[in-house]
Every structure is written in C-alpha cells, then in structure tokens.
Specification:
Elements lengths: L14 E6 L6 E2 L5 E2 L10 E8 L11 E4 L5 E5 L2 E7 L3 E5 L12
Antiparallel strand pairs: 1-4, 1-7, 2-3, 4-5, 5-8, 6-7
C-alpha cells in the first residue's frame, strides 16, 4: 500500500477514532501496590485520545480525551499502531478544557 497515494482517513456519521492512552497498562493502588493490566476486578473503562470524528458527532472533538469500554469497540491497525473505532453513544465521559456540564473532577 505504500506505493500508492497517501489517503487521509475521514470518519463517517457518528463514528469516533480513538487511540488508547499509554497509561492504561499497569497501575498502582493508592497504597503503592502494582496492579497488572491483566487483573480482572470489574470491567475496566479506559481513557483514549480522539484522533477524528464523523460529521454527525456532536459532543466530542478531535483532541479530547474520552472514557469508554475498550472491550465493546472495533480495533483497526493504522501505520502499525492499534486504534479503536466506536460510536459517539459508546463514550461515557469527555475530559476537555470546554466546560458545559462538568463534574468538578479533573484529570
């Protein structure tokens, strides 16, 4: 595919392209105990960075950080890296500088 012209990826309708945040691997408890990424406590939501949105997406913008369930999404490889494609309705929260309906909590 590298022989042909470069094609820009444009998301359609209500789709969002997300790259998983690198810190979604091992994590530490408040007491300093290392919790491996494979530990199953409950279905863990993940944070990711929005790389592109379709023209029907209303509440998420490119560059936002979003919270979602990575198990329910479709994975695609772009330039050798894994990315996720999801519908806007599958996003649980947005971390952004734009405050409209904030919780008072910050990342």
């Amino acid at each position: 595919m590298s022989d042909g012209p470069k094609l820009e990826i444009q998301m359609l309708q209500d789709r969002v392209l997300v790259k998983l945040s690198p810190e979604d691997g091992e994590r530490r408890s408040s007491g300093g105990i290392v919790i491996p990424a494979t530990a199953q406590v409950a279905r863990r939501l993940a944070w990711g960075d929005v790389l592109g949105v379709g023209n029907s997406v209303r509440n998420v913008k490119t560059g936002d950080r979003v919270l979602f369930n990575p198990e329910d999404q479709h994975e695609v490889e772009i330039q050798g890296e894994g990315h996720l494609v999801m519908r806007e309705r599958d996003i649980h929260a947005v971390a952004t500088e734009r405050t409209e309906h904030g919780t008072g909590l910050y990342l």
